[in-house]
Amino acid sequence: MGSRMSIQGIFFDLYGTLLVYGNMKKAWSDWLSAFYHLLEKQGLIYPKNPFHRNAMAFSARRRRPAIKII
């Protein structure tokens, strides 16, 4: 038998997927700030601005379609 994994958390893509707001830019900004502060409470030691830039870059990479439709 294979080894068993212990699930420690699940990450959902909430804004724009499960919930759609009229102002997605503000919704994303609010979510990003809340997520950053939650991680800080858990011991994150990382400047907020680079964290936000990296999260934006990660999100932008994930939005690209796998197949280019012409």
Shape: globular
Strand content: under 5%
Low-confidence stretches: none
How many β-strands, per DSSP?
0
Helical run tally? 2
* Helix-strand topology string: HH
Would you tell me the structural class of the helices and strands? mainly alpha
Quaternary structure type? single chain
Short description:
This protein is an all-alpha fold and 70 residues long. It has 2 helices and no strands.
Fold and architecture overview:
By secondary structure, the chain is mainly α. The chain has a domain at 24-63. The protein is built from two helices and no strands. 0% of the residues are buried.
Sum up the structure in keywords:
70 residues; mainly alpha; 2 helices
Topology diagram in text:
Elements: H1 24-41, H2 48-63
